[in-house]
């Protein structure tokens, strides 16, 4: 594939039937006292969700909705990359590259793409329109199933934007998408007009000059790693040990991903933290039908290997103008921590939302991006 080609999602019927069959035949663990989120996942709630996934969830309706987004695939440096490319409706749209994380996908941004491309339709100004590009990281979604670290992905994104005709562009991301966005700013600064982040990395325990606020943040993160960080440790070290279970059992896939999603949500609203039940199940189904559980986890290991080799994708401080947003159900890093890594032009505390803000509070997320990138047009 040497050119950009239109793409539509078309999952065969037998794949969806196999998914339902596997859900129906799940061998559930025997119940015991304390089968709640404190042990990783609330098993009764997981079972209820999987029952709904099997019997009531309508993949075809969700597939049709996703296909309303203009999607493409292209060969980028020998890697087949799937992406959304939606043109802005305005006098001079700003090119904007959005990078998802784990356990989400390009679907993370499906609610905000129309708001960003056509702001006037949603009560905004046409001057704030963006040309939006949302690629699927290799190893995720409908891109090639290859494991790549953040630096390599950033290089692919720079080449993709060249193929699409954009010399300079803005970028935003969270979770592993934050690492890719930082790698773009550090490795390809001449291409970047600005970056926006919803997290900025965590203290390693090796820092010796932390402010009191940073010290509080470091202590919080240390506790978080002990209670919530098991998934990352496994992804970084032994992703293939878990991969067969996630590829064979949709209930297992749901359990593993829900255990992480719940870390950024109130336990009673874990589905809402991902934009609702249908949104959550659509994302899970995307992982299932593309068979990308293994390669998506391996991205963590690729980044760790690079760091141990002295080539961390986020090592250094970017001089590119940066916007940073804190959401109340996300890790509360202080501004001075963000300043260690990026040149902060805007630091915002949002009133609602968490790790998946583009799904949970799309209006707030969109308004934040508009405000930050609009400010750069006057700099």
Low-confidence blocks of residues = none
By CATH, the superfamily comes out as Alpha/Beta hydrolase fold, catalytic domain
CATH fold-level label: Rossmann fold
What's the number of structural domains? 1
Q: Give the name of the CATH architecture.
A: 3-Layer(aba) Sandwich
Strand arrangement, largest sheet? Answer: 1-2-3-5-4-6-7-8-9
Q: What is the CATH class?
A: Alpha Beta
Report on the structure:
With 379 residues, the protein is α/β, with parallel strands linked by helices. It has a single domain, classed as Rossmann fold. 44% of the residues lie in helices and 14% in strands. It is built from 15 helices and 9 strands. The chain has a 9-stranded mixed beta sheet, with helices on both faces. Strand 2 and strand 3 (79-86) form a beta hairpin. Helix 2 crosses helix 10 and helix 9 packs across helix 10 (250-261). The protein starts with a strand and ends with a helix.
Layout of helices and strands:
Layout: E1 5-7, H1 13-24, H2 43-55, H3 59-66, E2 71-76, E3 79-86, E4 94-99, H4 112-117, E5 130-135, H5 150-163, E6 169-173, H6 176-187, E7 192-197, H7 212-228, H8 230-237, H9 239-248, H10 250-261, H11 277-290, H12 293-308, E8 321-326, H13 335-339, E9 343-349, H14 357-360, H15 362-376
Parallel strand pairs: 4-5, 4-6, 6-7, 7-8, 8-9
Antiparallel strand pairs: 1-2, 2-3, 3-5
Helix pairs in contact: 1-2, 2-10, 5-6, 8-9, 8-12, 9-10, 9-12
GO biological process, one term: epoxide metabolic process
Domain Epoxide hydrolase N-terminal: 4-109
Keywords: Aromatic hydrocarbons catabolism, Hydrolase
